[in-house]
Amino acid sequence: MEADFWLQRWQEGRTGFHRAEVMPLLEKYWLALGVPAGGRVFVPLAGKTLDMHWLAARGMQVLGGELSALAVDAFFAEAGLAPDVSEDLDGVHHRAGAIDLVRGDVFALSATTLRAMDAFYDRAALIALPPAMRRRYVAEVYGKLPRGCRGLLITLEYPQAQMDGPPFSVGEAEVRELFAQDWAVELLERKDILAHEPRFSDDGVTALATAVYRLQRG
């Protein structure tokens, strides 16, 4: 799961994790978080997700983090936007309207930058990482988010032995263990989705569910 792995995935067009529509679970649960208009939302490992446009349309100031230049360029090109580009220690910023998509290593985002966030939205970041990197990611990235920060974490659950990740299976027990020290964790929904994900069943996966958590830092 080093940087070259993800860069190669984008170069080869192996981006099955990208959705051509806004995530329904975001639409269903976001407003209940009560993030005020103008709130700053962090979207890690953002790719070119349309979810960033959805958040911006609801008054959020969106900070996305993405490694691949191809993904960043495609995000703005597909929306017909020409971002302003600048660089600092966090990476290369691409800004258009309420969206600032930073190309660079998510682990390199500064504590100053992430302390300014009011909320986060993690649909495909935690589940993109193998176990050791998940622990580091929670400690070093979530660990920079401030008290009171809240957001949605979306995971997948399936028999890990039946398929190599990514995306990886991350069960509820692991989520609670990873976040127990600093975050209140509430499971909002778990749903069987195997019938709607043929690529998993084609790989021999016999059970697949998505889980949505509300997290708030104490």
Strand order of the largest sheet: 3-4-5-2-1-6-7-9-8
Weakly predicted, low-confidence segments: none
Distance between the termini: 30 Å
Gross morphology: globular
The residue-averaged pLDDT reads 93
Number of helices: 8
Percentage of residues in strands: 25-35%
What is the radius of gyration computed over CA atoms, rounded to a whole number of angstroms? 16 Å
Share in helix: 25-40%
Structural class: alpha/beta
- List SSEs in N-to-C order: HHEHEHEEEHEHEHEHE
Beta strands, count? 9
The main β sheet shows up as:
9 strands, mixed
List the topology elements.
Blueprint: H1 3-11, H2 24-29, E1 40-43, H3 51-57, E2 61-66, H4 69-78, E3 84-88, E4 91-96, E5 99-103, H5 111-115, E6 119-122, H6 131-140, E7 150-157, H7 172-179, E8 183-192, H8 198-202, E9 209-217
Parallel strand pairs: 1-2, 1-6, 2-5, 6-7
Antiparallel strand pairs: 3-4, 4-5, 7-9, 8-9
Could you describe the 3D structure shown?
The protein has a nine-stranded mixed β-sheet, with helices on both faces. The longest helix has 10 residues, at 69-78. The chain is built from eight helices and nine strands. The two termini are 30 Å apart. Helix 3 (51-57) links the parallel strand 1 and strand 2 (61-66). The mean pLDDT is 93. The chain is α/β, with parallel strands linked by helices and 218 residues long. It has helices spanning 3-11, 24-29, 51-57, 69-78, 111-115, 131-140, 172-179, 198-202, and strands spanning 40-43, 61-66, 84-88, 91-96, 99-103, 119-122, 150-157, 183-192, 209-217.
